[in-house]
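Hi everyone,

Forwarding the result from last night's run.
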Amino acid sequence: MAKMTLLSRVSDGLPLAASMEDEKDHRELDSYKAQAKKIIKTLSGASAGKMSIESGGSTFHYVNQDGVCYLCLTEKAYPKRLAFLYLDELQKEFNLKFRDEVDAASRPYAFIKFDTYIQKTKKLYVDTRTQRNLSKMNDDLADVQKIMTQNIQEVLGRGQRLETTMGKSERLLEASGKYASNAKYLNTQALIRKYAPIAFVFLLIFGGLWWRFFR
């Protein structure tokens, strides 16, 4: 079943709740954690509502709904149908209990107590051969087949391109600001050069008249 489950706010990637399995190779799990954070970083309100992302011998599955990403990591052979049923259960319960608190959350893992429900639900999906899970896998198979599956490199590459585009946009805005400032300065200098001689002549005439009539 799920080696890792992570709930995050989509707008800024803030982790809201999580559940991790003990792994012998912590470096591998740390690598998957980093990939999960990058996946969430690529999401927005316009992203796919559900997706599977293959990474080596494992697969990320996520549900993106109501501003929250519900993501889990399973073995590649684990049935996609069950993975999404698991995430759907988490989504319904979390939305029922904490929907109005998500936007106000200001610290990581503000809903860590939700891990109790994650652990309880995860146990129901450990054995794919139980009658309960076999029945669920046979329901609505067409729906799960429509869920897109991508490779982790495709997804992370798209995220890097998005970051690059955003970086270029920021640099263009900065350059535009500098250009506008320089243009304003040059216009001011041009006006001074144009009207300074005229002002000087008027000043001389005014000074001469004042000297003549008021000295």
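The chain is about 55% helix and 20% strand.

Cheers,
N.
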